Amino acid sequence: MTLHVALEPLVSLIAGVLILLMPRLLNYIVALYLIIIGVLGLFPGI
After folding, report:
1. Distance from C-alpha of 29 to C-alpha of 12, rounded to nearest angstrom
2. pLDDT tens digits, residue range 9-45?
3. 39 CB contacts (<8 Å, ≥6 apart)?
4. Contact assessment for residue 33 and residue 15, using Cβ atoms and an 8 Å cutoff
């Protein structure tokens, strides 16, 4: 049995948890999230 997890929802979940735990990191987390999603959009094979 194998488990296939899409990367975008996992990144979103981690970002949400970090924002809840450390609200001061909101700007950095949002910026990193947007960069990661942008890179994944440019290179869908990753």
Report:
1. 10
2. 887 888 888 888 888 888 888 888 888 888 888 887 6
3. 46
4. yes
